[in-house]
């Protein structure tokens, strides 16, 4: 099994993910991989049967995966949402805000550096998929 960084309470999904086209062509897959540029909205009619959606980050500069995560979480997807590829330690807190709950970076992540990154900010300024209450809402009700 790959060495994934998990934040889910349940066991990691180990079934190989099929491509989006492959998923749409077969009725029995429960894991799918979205490549950069593919439209996550194609999965919306199928969310109830998916246990894991893996979103590709081919380069750290490509932010389309953040949008895919936000679309899927806002549509009610509650399964494992995995960021895979060029995932940098300082991006993981923002990926979590968009709804990612497991990570498969191409390069190893130092656990202490990751924890420092996750602990860096106590408050958030915007609403997001993670449900954290923005600081302005805490201050002004």
TrEMBL record:
<protein>
    <submittedName>
        <fullName>DUF934 domain-containing protein</fullName>
    </submittedName>
</protein>
<dbReference type="Pfam" id="PF06073">
    <property type="entry name" value="DUF934"/>
</dbReference>
<dbReference type="InterPro" id="IPR008318">
    <property type="entry name" value="UCP030820"/>
</dbReference>
């Amino acid at each position: 099994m790959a060495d994934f960084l998990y934040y889910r309470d349940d066991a990691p999904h180990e079934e190989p993910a099929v491509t989006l086209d492959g998923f749409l062509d077969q009725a029995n897959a429960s894991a799918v991989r979205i490549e950069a540029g593919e439209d996550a909205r194609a999965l919306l009619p199928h969310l109830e049967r998916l246990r894991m959606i893996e979103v590709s980050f081919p380069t750290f500069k490509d932010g389309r995966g953040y949008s895919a995560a936000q679309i899927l979480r806002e549509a009610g997807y509650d399964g494992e949402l995995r960021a895979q590829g060029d995932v940098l330690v300082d991006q993981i807190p923002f990926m979590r805000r968009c709804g990612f709950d497991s990570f498969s970076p191409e390069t190893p992540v130092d656990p202490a550096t990751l924890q420092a990154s996750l602990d860096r900010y106590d408050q958030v300024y915007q609403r997001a998929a993670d449900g954290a209450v923005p600081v302005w809402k805490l201050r002004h009700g």
